[in-house]
Amino acid sequence: MSSESPTVDDYFEASDEYDHDDKSEIPAEKLAELEAEISALQSD
Amino acid sequence: MERRKFVLSLGALAGGGAAVGTGAFSSVGASRDVTIDVAGDASAYLGIKPHSGPNGQYADTTSSDALALDFSGSNSNIGNGIAGGEGVNANALTTFANVFTVENQGTQDIDLEVTPLAFIETDGAPFPTSLLLVLIVPAAFSITLSPGQSQDYHVVALSLESDGEPDVSLQDEMRITAEEA
């Protein structure tokens, strides 16, 4: 198994059918929590 | 002179073969078995199945044995693995580790991809009072699996409700693609 570790931004980039402007409605601290959660899952 | 000898000896070999062989035929008709089953997601060559852990209960199975992520009140595992819950909490970040697994149950290496990995729903722009973000989280976006190898997928849901009333939900599709590596 291989490949790069995606970031939160990568998840949005991979979802072209969604309006990326919606992401701007998410408070920065919530995005930080999300990033930490993803990182924890990927490191398990 | 030498060339002529050579040609003659070839002719002798070909003639001998025809005389000795017993398989000369004008036509052959033969029947052979062909068996192809269409399997459910879990047992197909590309195995798509609920994770064997407790959060695999959120990966429900449709009437056609296809996997479907269902974090709602319609999940058929409610009462039989899920103890009554019918959705994620409002204004919360909810993590479900190990929800479903994709396994290479074929014969050669595959490149596996799931898209999209992010789903967003709001109750309207530019100032939504409700927002639901769901991420499908693999170990990596693009993964190569050898036969017998599998990849687990997690789900993270972020719900924001400024008016306190949960009034967004999300229904969409993810696409699972496997190509010969």
Descriptive tags:
heterodimer; A: 44 residues; mainly alpha; flat; B: 181 residues; mainly beta; 5-stranded antiparallel beta sheet; 10 strands; elongated; disordered N terminus
Summed up, what is this model?
Chain A contains two helices and no strands. By secondary structure, chain A is mostly helical. Classes of the chains: A mainly alpha (44), B mainly beta (181).
Give a structural overview.
The complex is a heterodimer of chains A (44) and B (181). The two termini of chain A are 15 Å apart. Chain A contains 2 helices and no strands. Chain A is mainly alpha-helical and 44 residues long. Chain B is mainly β. Chain B is built from 1 helix and 10 strands; from the N terminus they run αββββββββββ. Chain B has one helix spanning 2-20; strands spanning 46-50, 59-61, 67-69, 92-104, 110-115, 118-122, 130-137, 143-145, 150-161, 175-180. In chain B, strand 2 (59-61) and strand 3 (67-69) form a beta hairpin. Chain B is elongated, with a radius of gyration of 30 Å. Chain B starts with a helix and ends with a strand. Chains A and B meet through helix 1 and helix 2 of A and strand 4, strand 6, strand 7, strand 8 and strand 9 of B.
Q: Which percent range fits the helix content of chain B?
A: 10-25%
Q: What's the total helix number of chain A?
A: 2
What is the first-to-last residue Cα distance of chain B? Answer: 59 Å
The portion of residues forming beta strands of chain A comes to under 5%
Tally of DSSP β-strands of chain B: 10
Q: How would the blueprint of this fold be written?
A:
The complex is a heterodimer of chains A (44) and B (181).
Chain A: H1 8-13, H2 28-43
Chain B: H1 2-20, E1 46-50, E2 59-61, E3 67-69, E4 92-104, E5 110-115, E6 118-122, E7 130-137, E8 143-145, E9 150-161, E10 175-180
Antiparallel strand pairs in B: 1-4, 2-3, 4-9, 5-8, 5-10, 6-7, 7-9
